[in-house]
Amino acid sequence: MADETRQIQVLIGPYRDHRLTVSAADADAAINNHWAVDPHVLPDPDDPHPPLTEAERTAALMAATEWAQLQWNTAQGIAPPDPPPPEDGVTRDMHPEEDDPAANYTTREHRRRR
């Protein structure tokens, strides 16, 4: 569900020591990037999480800072940059119909209706 939200407890970054309600996707990303935890799940004492290396801590701080900046930009009405094009450089397969003098493009939806 796209509108599902979850709470996270932020461990590192601009929102450190805050409990935030975010989308489920953002919560999963924050937890997987080690900058937040699920406050409703108790840690398993039999399976402790190993301490983060310095590189992992730096990556977690960068991920938290980038997420916070994206939230700030969204609140200010600043659009995020366009994602980079795919590796092969082709983003759409749009060619005009050969017999169409106006060179209109036929969409997939239009093709299905014919």
Helix content: 25-40%
Q: Spell the H/E element sequence.
A: EEHEHH
Query: What form results from the Cα inertia axes?
Result: elongated
| Biggest sheet architecture | 3 strands, antiparallel
* First-last Cα distance: 33 Å
Q: What structural category do the secondary elements indicate? A: alpha+beta
Number of helices: 3
Mean pLDDT figure: 83
Strand content: 5-15%
Low-confidence stretches: none
Work out the number of β strands: 3
CA-based gyration radius: 22 Å
| Strand order in the sheet with the most strands | 2-1-3
Give structural attributes.
114 residues
Written account of the structure:
By secondary structure, this protein is α+β, with helices and mostly antiparallel strands. It has a domain at 5-43 and 52-76. It has helices spanning 24-32, 54-76, 108-113, and strands spanning 5-10, 19-23, 36-37. Strand 1 and strand 2 (19-23) form a beta hairpin.
Task: Summarize this entry quickly.
The chain has 114 residues and is of the alpha+beta class. Helices cover 33% and strands 11% of the residues.
